[in-house]
Design brief:
heterotrimer; A alpha+beta; B alpha+beta; C alpha/beta; A: alpha+beta; Alpha-Beta Plaits; 8-stranded antiparallel sheet; 5-stranded antiparallel sheet; 13 helices; 28% helix; 25% strand
């Protein structure tokens, strides 16, 4: 395949705005950017008809998080499908098109007095569609849980160009299957997410940001776990290595009087807050954007909370200088990789023995990004075959070659 | 002589694991909605995942439809048997397999009763948060199938947010062990997709569930109103003001009367037109702060009295009354139709008032009790199923209520599921493509559509999928 | 009562009260055993309605079996939001089903002898118990028990019949031991005087300790509770009348009949419902209601009437030896039948030096259920199992109950399991605690 558009039908060729490398190890492909839902449907339908395979994307910033497709003919971005479809501040819900950036979405929610999850790094680049497609939760997961819990409904375009919705715009609803759960985190293998509705949360009146430094991981972990047991609901709680020091970082947010009280309680363990209110938010945003997952190569590890120390030992976290972010209450690690992707990949069996999972993002190396999936892979393949029997959405990018 | 396949099943589940006499099968005709009845041909009561798997393999071979059943407390006909089918009851699978207070997870068999998990976790200061009103009886497996809610899901989220892993048996007997709790799914989110699939994807036999730390402080407010409209407005105000209590419930006058006449008498004032029940939980200061902010809002809408429960006992009574409300309606009429519609929380008053009008026009007795904070309404219509004309009017009213909610931007069901009862209404809310997509997903799990057949997706949508899936000519 | 009119076979109107919500399922001991819907209260009501509406045959043996399988513990009533009176429905369904279902001849004979002859007659009961005592002591019982098949173990598990000296009826008048505050009478019962004479004496002694003089009710024996629970409503009605007549004769000086204290929960629950039992009998209706209003459970009466200065105690050292950790187990017909839960616990808490613990499943049936443990020993033992597990978990040294049937069930169950736990009736403990000074 090449970045030429000769093989594309006119409906597609006319929408090509450039070319993009789908993966460092893959070819450059024509990039199609529809401006409306109708154009997008038309493009998918044309690809389906001509038996072409496409890779759906948002801004394309995380294309390399998956594997290179087995074969692909074009890239299809939703980035021009932006804007709010419905916003009900008094009901606490928002429904937006998938190309909307997380920053725009959060700004809109905030204008209505709400916080919108997920609080992911580089929100002005990340689109909601791309974020949901990868199933990414943000730093606010400590309090709010994974993003998939707050997706109320979705509209997607299927391989044959059909538009299908699931769920709705209601904070509570069980009408029909939760297909939006299936699409969330499906890495663009089943459908193109074109619209999603999210539940909103009250925007905090007041905030506080704490940092406490340790020279050793174990000590930092102990502090973070002690913080998690304090009688307050942290918005985010993490420990990170920067400049060879381990820093416990914790963010309080809520009603003014409550935060004031909680600051008093947390002080004994974490010291004075480094920042309050607007300053706290600035610090939080800056650290979020320097998260280990923003590096070109990194590993994501998840385990049971009781296994954090074991996993840290297996990863030999105490050694090295690279960036590390750990969310202790969720039990996830993000570890920057230098040229050691193979070394970390070799630890996969040891991590599995601890019940941990490993996702490697090292596109310039030949390591397998995803853990092997068990017998349930057959079912995942049946789902793929049912929804996209012709492979319109490029195969090979996700677990088990889905 | 007994059919060979029945003998095989008997060998799998044992003598006590099989029900095959007409009289006992009669008792399995209906779940919580007795309007829908069908006697099954056989009931199986397995004890382990292995037994379920072996039984399903036999039924696969024999091409016999299967309806899984927990406690049979569902209100949408999700467990109504199908003609010529087998009911697979999980009632004998109720062991707690693992309870890990450090990771705050429990692994249980699917037939464990909801409340029993919270009782088992209590000694560790933990509980299982989703609390359907039937939690004294309903099984966790049933909760998973329906993605059940409950009053406190307002804060803690519905069942799906608390399911971390599942052991699934597919229609052909294949066992998928997805029990390891994962932060994010590995590959497609099969567990998340399964929750709420109403028994049509397979049978969940073992569940890995999240346990929640008991809140340090809980306060329960009871606000008394002279009009149901005002109570609804108070709730809309609470949501608008961005308050986050853990539960917001409304009971109307008829419901209060029924509850107060029952063993669950909670001390709701019998003269009130509506009461609003609000739970606030969290740290002491958080709770104090919230209560202080919430109370004036409620009063501003004309609450004639706002009481704070003085003791744990009183708090429990107030909630027991709420949770016994459905059953207490037995005092009003032999049967009860429970609608389960959802609407945006800005529209509570107008929709509730409209449902009252619908019932009045049809000369039906309506009691309303609902999860107001979530916008999940339960207009309950009392009737007698022996009165054919009344049944007809009830069903018409149910349809009108669903239409009304769809028009208001709402949906058909918030926690009871579509089941059999709301089947036709699916076409009012979803397009042909929407339903065809659901049908395809279902067929990935159950190609022959033998698991809980005829539920959730109108048959027509499925037939259309079949046609749509036939390849267009130019591709062949 | 005929098959042509199936609505007469059950209390049809009451079956319509059940809204099929299922809140009863988890409380039901037989549903816990089988997981079978038909063995649950909701299921049984559904079958009853099925009989009335012609969907289930009135003489269907499976229907009959499900009725018999029920322990009528009435736990379901305690949780039923619709207020279904399940116990009453069972009594009626069993009574009428007995006319249609065919019992084996031998069983019919045994029932007639038991219900019609022995139970209502104190002398015959005494004779029967003397024979049993002889059979136990001589070893004859051990030899003949196997002839009773499945009931062998239940027979062997019967408590040893005490010596004749302990089986004397109560004295006609047992005076208060402190300043008299009133007079009462007690139900001595049918089996009680023979097997649990000590409990009757302890009842009187405790009443005396709180200032009540007890007057006995002559030769009255049976209140008819066992009849009613086992589908012998005719016998139950006749015994109710005998009982009312007998107790109406025990009056104070002003001619007012005395309060009736009952230390057997099943009997008490039944006697409190005489008004309903005889509701269709205009000659007895009002008299029965008035009688029922005078019936008090032992714990109910003592808790309500004990003077503030009554301070029972077990000496720390004695108490530790005698009772140790004490767990109270609610008899079904006390907690579910009479809604009496607090009073026994209050009384135990009042005893100085006593360490009380709660049983995890105190309100669950122990499997005694009147004569159920004799009729269906295997099911009865299975129902008992989780009770024993809860007892073990509580690490109690003494199990306190307030019903003789439960006391027997606990005693034999504990012996069978080889546990070293003492079983006492609440009255026994209180009598001992009132004595120890």
């Amino acid at each position: 395949m090449s970045a030429t558009k000769e093989h594309l039908a006119v409906e597609l060729a006319s929408r090509v705005v450039g070319a993009l490398r789908v993966h460092p190890r893959g070819a450059e492909l024509p990039l199609v950017v529809p401006r409306t839902l109708e154009e997008l449907v038309e493009a998918v339908r044309a690809a389906h008809r001509d038996r072409l395979s496409l890779v759906p994307l948002g801004s394309g910033s995380k294309l390399a998080w998956t594997r290179a497709p087995a074969s692909a003919d074009l890239l299809l971005s939703v980035r021009e499908l932006t804007g709010i479809v419905a916003h009900e501040p008094d009901d606490g819900t928002i429904s937006v098109r998938a190309g909307t950036t997380i920053a725009d979405l959060r700004a809109k929610a905030r204008a209505g007095g709400h916080w919108c999850t997920p609080d992911v790094p580089n929100p002005s680049r990340a689109t909601l569609g791309g974020t949901l497609s990868l199933g990414l939760s943000g730093a606010d997961r400590t309090r709010l849980g994974p993003v998939r819990n707050h997706v109320l409904g979705m509209k997607v375009v299927l391989a044959d160009g059909a538009i299908a919705k699931s769920g709705g715009r209601l904070v509570k609803n069980v009408t029909g299957y939760d297909l939006h759960r299936l699409y969330t985190g499906s890495h663009g293998t089943l459908a193109v997410i074109v619209e999603a509705a999210l539940r909103l949360f009250p925007f905090p009146e007041s905030e506080a940001w704490f940092e406490r430094e340790h020279s050793r991981f174990d000590a930092a972990l102990a502090t973070a776990l002690a913080a998690s047991e304090l009688p307050m609901r942290w918005l985010s709680l993490s420990l990170a290595r920067t400049e060879n020091r381990w820093r416990v970082r914790a963010r309080l947010a809520g009603k003014t009087a409550v935060v004031a009280h909680e600051v008093g309680v947390a002080r004994a363990l974490l010291g004075e807050p480094l920042g309050r209110d607007a300053r706290a938010a600035e610090l939080a945003d800056a650290h979020r954007d320097a998260d280990a997952t923003t590096k070109p190569r990194f590993a994501r590890i998840a385990c049971r909370p009781s296994r954090i120390a074991d996993v840290a030992r297996t990863l030999e976290l105490e050694r090295g200088e690279n960036a590390v972010t750990v969310e202790p209450t969720i039990a996830t690690f993000a570890v920057e990789l230098s040229n050691d992707a193979r070394t970390v990949a070799a630890r996969r069996p040891a991590l599995h023995a601890l019940g941990a999972s490993l996702h490697l993002v090292a596109p310039d190396s030949d390591v397998e990004p995803f853990d092997a999936v068990g017998p349930e892979l057959a079912l995942m393949r049946r789902l793929k075959d049912k929804l996209d029997p012709d492979g319109t959405f490029a195969r090979g990018r996700f677990v088990g070659g889905l | 002589m007994e059919a060979a396949w029945i003998a095989e099943l008997r060998a799998v589940v044992g003598e006590r694991g099989i029900v095959d006499d007409a009289t006992r099968l009669f008792a399995y005709e209906a779940d919580g909605i007795v309007l829908l009845r069908q006697r099954p041909d056989l009931v199986l009561l397995p004890r382990t995942t292995d037994e379920v798997s072996r039984a399903l393999a036999i039924l696969h071979r024999e091409r016999i439809p299967i309806v899984a059943r927990g406690a049979g407390t569902g209100l949408s006909g999700g467990a109504t048997p199908v003609a010529g089918g087998v009911v697979l009851s999980l009632a004998r699978m109720r062991d707690v397999l693992e309870l890990d207070p450090v990771d705050r997870i429990a692994r249980v068999q699917a037939g464990l009763v909801n409340i029993d998990l919270s009782l088992a976790a209590a000694k560790h200061g933990l509980f299982y948060a989703p609390d359907p009103s039937s939690q004294q009886a309903c099984t966790l497996g049933g909760n998973v199938a329906e993605n059940s809610g409950g009053p406190h899901c307002f804060r803690h989220g519905a069942t799906t947010q608390h399911v971390l892993g599942l052991v699934l048996v597919l229609e052909d007997g294949t066992v998928l062990d997805l029990s390891e709790p994962r932060v994010d799914p590995l590959g497609l989110d099969l567990v998340g997709l399964f929750v709420g699939s109403e028994g049509m994807f397979g049978v969940a036999t073992e569940l890995t569930l999240k346990l929640t730390k008991k809140p340090a402080t809980v306060e329960t407010l009871l606000a008394i109103f002279e009009s149901l409209d005002a109570a609804c407005d108070a709730v809309s105000d609470l949501i608008r003001a961005r308050h986050e209590p853990s539960a917001i419930e409304i009971l109307d006058r008829l419901t209060i009367e029924a509850v107060e006449a029952s063993v669950y008498a909670a001390g709701y004032p019998k003269t009130a037109e509506a009461v609003l029940l609000v739970d606030v939980e969290g740290s002491e200061v958080e709770v104090e702060n919230s209560v202080r902010a919430i109370e004036p809002l409620i009063r501003a809408r004309g609450a004639i009295e706002v009481r704070v429960a003085k003791s744990d006992y009183e708090r429990k009574q107030l909630w027991a009354g709420r949770k016994g409300a459905f059953g207490a309606m037995g005092r009003i009429a032999p049967d009860l139709y429970v609608a389960d519609v959802c609407v945006p929380r800005t529209k509570l008053r107008e929709v509730v008032a409209h449902t009252t009008r619908i019932a009045r026009e049809k000369n039906l007795k309506l009691a309303t009790v609902f999860h107001a904070g979530d916008g999940n309404l339960h207009p309950n219509i009392a009737y007698d199923r022996r009165d054919a004309d009344e049944v007809r009017r009830v069903l018409e009213a149910g349809d009108e209520i669903m239409h009304l909610c769809i028009a208001a931007g709402g949906s058909l069901t918030g926690e009871h599921g579509v089941g059999l009862e709301k089947l036709p209404a699916m076409e009012w809310l979803f397009t042909r493509e929407d339903l065809a997509t659901m049908c395809r997903v279902r067929e990935a799990w159950d190609p022959d559509r033998r698991m809980n057949p005829g539920k959730l997706i109108p048959m027509r949508a499925c037939l259309e999928t079949k046609q749509a899936l036939a390849r267009p000519e130019h591709l062949t | 009562m005929n098959l042509a009119d199936p609505k007469s076979l059950v209390e049809y109107a009451a079956t319509l009260d059940c809204i099929h919500c299922g809140l009863c399922l988890r409380t039901c001991p037989t549903f816990q055993l089988t997981g079978n819907e038909a063995s649950s209260p909701r299921g049984r009501i559904y079958l009853m309605r099925g009989v009335a509406e012609g969907e289930v045959a009135g003489d269907d043996p499976v229907y009959h079996e499900e009725l018999e399988f029920c322990l009528v513990c009435r736990h379901c009533e305690s949780v039923c939001p619709a207020g279904v009176r399940f116990g009453e429905m069972m009594e009626i369904a069993r009574d009428r089903s007995a006319h249609t279902a065919k019992r084996p001849l031998l069983e019919t004979l045994a029932r007639r002898i038991g219900f019609d002859v022995v139970l209502p007659n104190r002398a015959l009961m005494r004779l029967a118990m003397s024979l049993l005592g002889f059979a136990q002591r001589s070893g004859v019982l051990a030899r003949v028990a196997p002839l009773f098949g499945a009931r062998k173990d239940a027979l062997l598990a019967l408590p040893a019949v005490p010596p004749t000296s302990e089986r004397e009826p109560l004295g006609l008048r047992s005076p208060a031991r402190v300043l008299e505050r009133g007079e009462v009478t007690v139900l001595e019962g049918c089996v009680m005087p023979e097997l649990f004479g000590r409990v009757n004496r302890a009842t009187v002694e405790t009443l005396g300790a709180i200032g009540f003089t007890t007057r006995a009710c002559g030769t009255h024996a049976c209140c008819g509770a066992l009849h009613a629970h086992n589908g012998e409503l005719e016998g139950a009605r006749s015994l109710a009348k005998t009982t009312i007549a007998a107790f109406d004769g025990v009056a104070d000086q002003g001619g007012e009949p005395l309060p009736i204290i009952v230390n057997s929960a099943g009997c008490g629950a039944h006697m409190k419902e005489y008004g309903r039992l005889l509701a269709d009998d205009p000659a007895w209706r009002e008299r029965a209601s008035a009688f029922s209003a005078r019936v008090h459970d032992f714990s109910e009466f003592v808790a309500a009437h004990a003077p503030p200065d009554w301070k029972p105690s077990v000496d720390a050292s004695d108490g530790a030896r005698a009772f140790g950790r004490v767990a109270y187990d609610d008899p079904c017909h006390l907690c579910h039948g009479q809604q009496i839960r607090k009073q026994p616990r209050e009384l135990l808490a009042r005893v100085a030096g006593l360490e009380c613990v709660e049983l995890a499943n105190a309100e669950q049936c122990c499997g005694s259920a009147g004569i159920y443990s004799m009729l269906r020993p295997a099911d009865s033992n299975a129902v008992f199992e989780p009770k024993l597990a809860a007892l073990d978990e509580s690490r109690a040294d003494t199990l306190v109950t307030a019903n003789p049937g439960c006391q027997m069930q606990w005693q034999s169950g504990i012996e069978r399991a080889g546990r070293n736990v003492r079983v006492v009736h609440l009255a026994e403990l209180l009598a001992e605690a009132s004595r120890a000074k």
